[in-house]
Amino acid sequence: MESTVPNHEVALAYKRLTEDYDRIIERQPFFINAYRLYDKLLHQILDGKRYKKILDVGCGNAAQTVRLARHGDEVIGVDIADDLLSVARERCRNFSNVRFMNEDARKLPFPDQTFDCVLSYGDVLSHITDGYVQALSEISRVSKTGAVISFEVDNKWNAGLLYKPREIWEAIRTRGRGHDTREWEGMRFKTFTYRELAGLLKRHHFKITGYHGHNILASFIPDRYVLEQDRRSLLGRMALGLGSVDLGISGTFPFNRCGFNIIVIARKS
Question: What letter does residue 113 receive in the DSSP assignment?
């Protein structure tokens, strides 16, 4: 059963974060580690390739869109947060092949089989606790046969649970699937298990080709330090050091099942 957290809470949270968003992802070890993996996987997905149409779902401030712009004839970013879209448009102002739309991932305004590459980083599906299945169905609908997709979600099992006894109980109680948890900036997140993701993707005609975790070992450092400490603090430097190890093992079983977050790469069959 999917929960009913209204999506406007997500939009309001990111409105509050708009001014500080770039600073947060440059300063906090958790996000620095995450963006290292984004860069690695984007290189794998984009390097030496050219796509006709690319969709960035939950594009935010266009941190990924600006990179996609160099590899697509047409690139479209969609997001529900107008304030972040203003930042995105400014960031991509020099790219005539990029445009942005204020849209909900659960109801994408595009014809069937439009895109040959779809990206969705930054916990977008985990944010949509009231409609992640619908969002994935929409991504499938607008993806061409053979299209590459890559998206990020929160992982159910990770080392950070060691510091959250209530969440451990919730994870145990919801056997066989993820649970809603981890309130941050007024938002809650849907976590996923590997089996749950594999089943969802299979039902929507996708085959997993890559499964990567970030903040695997770094999650042994409590959230309040990884998410709040400056990268220059002692614990911040420790988290970054562990993050460097994580980057090397991110796609290796069983470590890839243990990241705080998971990034999936799949292909539409």
Answer: T
Specify the amino acid at residue 108.
L
Please name every residue paired with 115 in a beta bridge, in sequence order, or none if there are none.
Answer: 143
Q: Give the CATH fold of the 7-268 domain.
A: Rossmann fold (3.40.50)
Tell which phi-psi region holds residue 185, choosing left (phi > 0), alpha (psi between -120 and 50) or beta: left
Alpha helices in the chain (DSSP H): 7-17, 21-27, 29-46, 65-68, 82-91, 124-127, 132-142, 165-173, 194-203, 223-226, 234-249
Q: What number of CA atoms fall less than 13 Å from residue 87's CA on the CB side? A: 18
- Please check whether residue 89 is in contact with residue 69, taking contact to mean a CB–CB distance below 8 angstroms: no
Measured CA distances, 262 to 70, 145, 151, 184 (Å): 25, 24, 8, 18
d(CA 225, CA 222): 6
The distance in angstroms from the start CA to the end CA of the chain is 27
**Residue 160: its H or E element:** none
For 99-109, what is each residue's pLDDT tens digit? 999 999 999 99
Residue 43 amino acid letter: H
CA distance 86 to 62: 10
Q: What average pLDDT does the structure give for the chain?
A: 89
SS3 sequence, 172-237?
Answer: HHCCCCCCEEEEECCEEEEEECHHHHHHHHHHCCEEEEEEEEECCCHHHCCHHHHCCCCCCCHHHH
CA angle 178, 211, 157 (to 5 degrees): 30
Say which amino acid occupies 244.
Answer: S
167/161 Cα distance (integer angstroms): 7
- Provide, rounded to the nearest whole percent, the portion of the chain with pLDDT above 70: 88
Please tell me the distance from the alpha carbon of residue 166 to that of residue 219, in angstroms, as a whole number. Answer: 17
